[in-house]
Write a structure and sequence with these properties.
Distance between the termini: 45 Å
Largest sheet: 8 strands, parallel
Strand content: 5-15%
Radius of gyration: 24 Å
Strand order of the largest sheet: 6-19-18-15-13-11-10-9
Structural class: alpha/beta
Number of helices: 19
């Protein structure tokens, strides 16, 4: 499959030039990683039961605030205890409703070759979403996000085969008024990319507009749109123990039209949740399950995922911290709980670092490997995230894609196959006790694809690296970024569909888009 749209474009290491031809880099083909590893499960069975019991008691005894009158009325009809905007619900109701959610489902974008299987052993990676700022390597500082920067990050989202879905805005284009921002960005997203997209649940107009635009881009009737998930939304609870009006409203609208929902509490231990990780996870589970129960009551079988964004704060400053040991353990524990409830899971590739440096990479790598260990199915923010989600960086995006490709290679059966050819006794016998394996036929037949080949890492020795210009990793990533965006071509879209999208955007702008108070 083409890497960047209608033609392959890529760049990278000089030694791979012959293999990659005119492409900017030699990247791995589009694939859906299959995680065959047994998940890391720090909780014994009694630990799982303890967190479950804690979550159920939160819902039964303490309750969760829902600032959405429609949700309150639905809970009242369902027999839950509603006092003002506080809802308490019986565990039997919660478990019954959560049991209606499918353990696996698909999301089908306009390019059906990019259909995403959610659940099982599948693992999907998405782009950075929602930072208001952008790291400008040339200026050496962060700047406010723009539409042009957002478009370039969407080009990277489409280009890299290890990125499977286009999450929220990869950087918030604050140069566009908030009332029409979603129209511009979704138009860009649906034309620059053909991968599965996300809608922010931030008001009825935004959700309804995005659903209509996804319908148009896919050439779908309303019946076809509702027949299976074509997109998804992700919401965060307002921890502790609160769900706001617009996010619940958006999810109800999505559920009634058969689209997928991810519920991801933002529970920071020590600030918005207990300082203990088990307590923070129990609260997060409670905040997720009560919303999923609501959506299942309204539309049984709605595809839902349980998300985790449980980490800790720096107790010296109160600032969020990501990629920490506590973050890793909370992700693993949430994976156990998601399996306990039979729900697919979402986690994130996140860091606290302010620039694309070593700290950024070790914190993100911790986050990504925690996702692998936990059995995560959808990894949000897998490429491009900095400063706890306040900065998007194209260089970090490309650096992260190197890590994502390595994870994908790690999961390929070739890395752990044990056929007679893999055990290679004949080759070992041929070399014997003296000699080497470089020149034998067994090696010659396999050397071109025996091992992972990086597109960004530099494996030369110091002298060769110095002679070639002594470029640090972000500088090399910046060059690749410029080459990819300069040569990018959008994936095909019929002129009639493109025109219909343009007409929809123009009409909705004339109508005022989404209301704002400024």
């Amino acid at each position: 499959m083409a890497t960047g749209g209608r033609r392959r474009r890529s760049g990278g290491r000089a030694g791979a030039a012959n293999r990659r031809g005119e492409a900017v880099i030699e990247q791995m083909p589009w694939q859906i990683p299959v995680n065959v590893d047994r998940p890391t499960e720090p909780l014994p069975p009694e630990g799982v039961q303890a967190i479950h019991e804690g979550a159920m008691r939160i819902l039964e005894e303490i309750g969760v605030v829902f600032l959405n009158p429609e949700a309150l009325e639905i809970f009242r009809q369902a027999g839950c205890k509603v006092e003002g905007d506080l809802v308490r619900m019986n565990r039997d109701f919660v478990i019954e409703m959560v049991g209606k959610a499918p353990s696996t489902f698909t999301i089908t974008p306009r390019n059906t070759d990019r259909t995403l299987p959610i659940g099982g052993n599948h693992m999907l990676f998405g782009n950075v979403s929602s930072p208001p700022n952008y790291w400008d390597l040339k200026l050496g500082k962060k700047v406010s996000g723009t539409r042009a920067q957002c478009q370039n990050l969407l080009k990277l989202t489409q280009y890299f085969n290890c990125i499977h879905f286009a999450g929220g805005y990869p950087v918030e284009p604050v140069d566009i008024h908030a009332s029409v921002r979603h129209l511009n960005v979704l138009y860009d997203k649906l034309t620059i990319s053909d991968k599965a997209v996300h809608a922010y649940s931030l008001g009825a107009e935004r959700v309804e507009d995005v659903m209509e635009m996804v319908k148009i881009a896919g050439g779908l009737s309303e019946e076809e749109f509702q027949a299976k998930p074509r997109m998804y939304t992700n919401i965060n609870s307002t921890s502790p123990l609160k769900h706001d009006y617009p996010m619940i409203d958006g999810c109800l609208r999505m559920a009634r039209r058969g689209q997928a929902i991810v519920v991801t509490p933002f529970t920071l231990a020590g600030a918005m949740a207990p300082v203990t990780m088990a307590g923070a996870v129990a609260q997060s589970i409670a905040e997720s399950l009560c919303a999923i129960a609501l959506f299942q009551y309204v539309a049984p079988g709605t595809p839902c995922m349980i998300g985790t964004f449980t980490s800790n704060v720096d107790m010296k400053s109160g600032a969020p911290a990501f990629g920490t040991p506590e973050y890793m353990r909370s992700t693993q524990m949430t994976g156990q709980m998601a399996r306990f409830y039979g729900l697919p899971m979402r986690s994130s590739g996140v860091c606290t670092a302010n620039v694309p440096d070593g700290q950024a990479m070790w914190e993100t790598s911790n986050s990504l490997w925690a996702a692998v260990q936990s059995g995560t199915h959808m990894v949000y923010h897998a490429a491009g995230w900095l400063e706890g989600g306040l900065i998007a960086s194209p260089e970090k995006f490309i650096m992260d894609c190197e890590v994502l490709q390595q994870i994908q290679r790690y999961m390929q059966p070739a890395t752990f196959a044990t056929t007679a050819d893999d055990i290679a006794l004949d080759a070992i016998k041929e070399v014997g006790n003296d000699g080497h394996f470089f020149g034998i036929q067994h090696t010659q037949d396999r050397y071109t694809d025996a091992f992972y080949q990086p597109f960004l890492s530099d494996w030369r020795n110091y002298e060769a690296w110095e002679e070639a210009g002594a470029e640090w990793t972000p500088q090399r990533a910046h060059k690749i970024f410029k080459l990819i965006t300069a040569g990018f071509e959008e994936p095909p879209m019929a002129d009639a569909i493109r025109g219909e999208l343009q007409e929809f955007v123009a009409r909705r702008k004339e109508e005022g888009g989404a209301p704002t108070d400024f």
